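so the lab meeting is tmrw and i was supposed to have these ready like two days ago... anyway. pasting both below. for each one the top line is the aa sequence and the line under it is the structure tokens. i havent really looked at them closely yet so no promises
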Amino acid sequence: TGELLNESVVSLQDIVDKYVDGHTKMSSYISVARNFLKVHYDEHALRENDRVPTHGVQFGLRKELDDKNSAQRSEHCQQCAFIPFLFKELRQFVPDDDEDAQRLLVDVEEKFAIYQAHRLRVINQQAHIAAATERLKKDCDDGKPTTEAILLQDFKTKIEEKSARETTKEHYATRGMSWHGIMLQYFVKENITVKEGRKLVNKVVTSRKLVYLDQIIAHGNNQSSATVMACMEAAVNWISVNLPFINKLTVQSDNAKCYNNNELRMFIMLLNTFSPVKIVRYIFTETQDGKGSFLL
């Protein structure tokens, strides 16, 4: 968001300050565009029941169809059309002989498009992650035995409030204690007692259970694929001993190199050959959010 959106907005404002007299109106246009992309674009991307070409995740993530018989997506959305309108307006103020400013407009417009593509992937990814969780809950609601869990893992590096944290670029390559965190999520049936009127009634409900595992890396701060392998093997062994009813895992992490690499894929396949707990799916989250995945 910082590099693709916030820094791009600053660059547009610099152009407005340089070329637009009484630039209050154009400055407000830039603020509106930023607010739309950051706050409202996700809502528009989720709209599936119209024919606006910029709406619908499924249309944003696939190539354009050549089928002439397919329904034309020719409806108009005023909010979505505001982004190209903004750049059309800005180009009227930038002289043709200022190649740097013209190139900057092209670059920022491309970054806005990349940001929109990123948000489309994130929305799609979040939907699939939510569907995986909902599937586990439904299986439990239907009376099926709990045999599968979702394991979320990441290296803990920041503990301040989000607004006060370092950015990803600022934190990169800094040294510190390697603290690997794991959260395990699964669903079980539980008997609870609730008060209905003056009576206490026993009910069976589906409860979500969260188990947290903290793994401190001794004698170093290495965050390599080998470190992740050791942490994952330790976690799987702990699960097999302490939660023996779980025999399948969906693992989720970000797409850092220590997670998204061929060595770890091969290790998981090897681990599955002898561990009673099998890793059946690995979900890689998109930069700052979303996901890509491979199935085993």
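ok protien two:
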Amino acid sequence: AFGLLFRRRRPDWGDRGLVLFLGGDPAFAGRLARRLGYPAAAYVERVAGALNFQQYFAAYPPVAEELRTRGKSNVHFVGNLMASAVKGRAEEVAVDLGVQPGETVLSFFPGSRPWQICHLVPFFLEMAQLLGQALVQHQLMIMSPFVEEEQLVNAASKPSSILGGITATCVERWEGVAGNKVVVLKTVQGHRVTAVWGARYELMKGSTLAVTIPGTNTAELGYLHVPTVVLVPLHRPEIIPLPGLIQWVGRIPRLGPVLKRRAVETYLRTHPYVALPNQWVGREIMPEYKGSF
């Protein structure tokens, strides 16, 4: 993607095309559209930062109305794509994982970025072991499709340098009848946590409780009515990725991390909620815990 944005030679993809922005930093979508000579359209859940597109697909009627009041004519209300996506039956995956009706399932969501996997996997392993199977009969780690199996195994092999945690080794691997990949991790004290790829929404739907970090997960879990706890580790705020220029400012030696840390602290002061459902309703319906754990 960065190659398309910054290489000198424009790729020869023909004269007709469209850049469709679905999330992330809208500045990149706009730059890519100009680079390719294509019109740009955007799916938007909020107006801020997304005012330079030729066509808009709004997630909510108030967003569509605000875009129109700002002079945007090509606006369509399409509904929230996350709400449309969260479908599936939990029963098929439950059979795969040996979950019986009525048994409790605690699901952890460690994210998709390499730094998240590196730090959160050992941290969640320790949390799972502390809770123990006396309280929860099944403990799952729901993996992003962008995370490789070996990436998970490597992350579990050493404690996080920031969050600590415990280590675990891979003791089983298999592919379930529902097509999901499974890796079983075992801690030094013999506690087992099952990591699963695939059947994401079915696994969410079958969870008794979910533990996650901020992101799209919070909305999906909210739509599925899954009780969820959102954790925001602030041991090293400067490593949290942020949209826009501040992410690049944070890379300036010495000064950058200080400025980025202050930017994160300022954001949290001015935005009391990080979970999407809490932002939407303006109150904490999904518990959030921020700080050093």
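from a quick look at the 2nd one: Residues 48 and 202 are 33 Å apart (CA to CA). DSSP finds twelve helices and twelve strands in the chain. will dig more after coffe
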